[in-house]
Amino acid sequence: MQIVKEGYPFIAIPLALGLGLIIAGFGRVSSILGTLFILISLFCLYFFRDPKVEITKGDGLILSPCNGTVLEVSEKKTEKVIRVFLSVLDVHLQRSPIFGRVISVEHKPGKFLKAMEPQAHIVNEQNVITIENENGKYLVKQIAGILARRCVLWVKQGDVLNTGDKIGVIKFSSQVDLHMPKNVDIKVKQGDKVVSGVTIFATLK
């Protein structure tokens, strides 16, 4: 299993501190602190994991851009939206839900409300990635939460993506939204567990 490169400092620094405190042997407090730092390092190792997945194949499929639990499925006049909550135990790597070209990337500064708050997807800091293909435009939103203070993007305007390509990572608990054209048939519901690049979010009608 690979580790997301953004996780290296979060793994290495507490590991070095922990080992240093234990090796120094300054007494019980030193051992307790050293063990705590090592546990933090191991948690970060788990958090920033990048497991291998077999991308779901098929015509007209829109895949989940993230791992997590579906918060909401909604339909508006011109689009359908699926919102997903990512706990600290979920893989925080995001993938492209479709094949297409990145036509815009926008960073929106904002607040850091809890990811499950009703207004979080509106007022929180976020990145908006718009991907377009012959079937329409799809917006993937990386939304920061109370612990997630940084959303990292690995793509830029003009990039051509295959379905399941890695597009970014969010550091700690957060939310990811997918906005889709209205001519799709939703395949998930509130409370469903989803896997990035594997779970079918929707199909074209």
Topology:
Elements: E1 2-3, H1 8-24, H2 28-47, E2 49-50, E3 61-63, E4 68-75, E5 79-86, E6 93-95, E7 100-108, H3 120-123, E8 126-133, E9 136-144, E10 151-153, E11 160-161, E12 166-170, E13 174-181, E14 184-186, E15 193-194, E16 200-204
Helix pairs in contact: 1-2
Describe the overall structure:
The chain has 205 residues and is of the alpha+beta class. It contains 3 helices and 16 strands. The strands form 4 sheets. It has an 8-stranded antiparallel beta sheet with strand order 11-7-8-9-13-5-4-15, with no helix packed on it. Strands 3-16-14 form a 3-stranded antiparallel beta sheet, with no helix packed on it. The protein has a 3-stranded antiparallel beta sheet with strand order 6-12-10, with no helix packed on it. A hairpin with a 3-residue loop joins β4 and β5 (79-86). The protein is elongated, with a radius of gyration of 19 Å.
Task: State the end-to-end CA separation.
Answer: 36 Å
**Whole-number average pLDDT?**
89
Number of strands: 16
Binned, the helix content reads 10-25%
Q: What is the CA-based Rg, rounded? A: 19 Å
Given the structure, what is the number of helices?
3
Order of helices and strands: EHHEEEEEEHEEEEEEEEE
The proportion of residues in beta strands is 35-45%
Key structural traits:
single chain, 205 residues, alpha+beta, eight-stranded antiparallel sheet, three-stranded antiparallel sheet, 3 helices
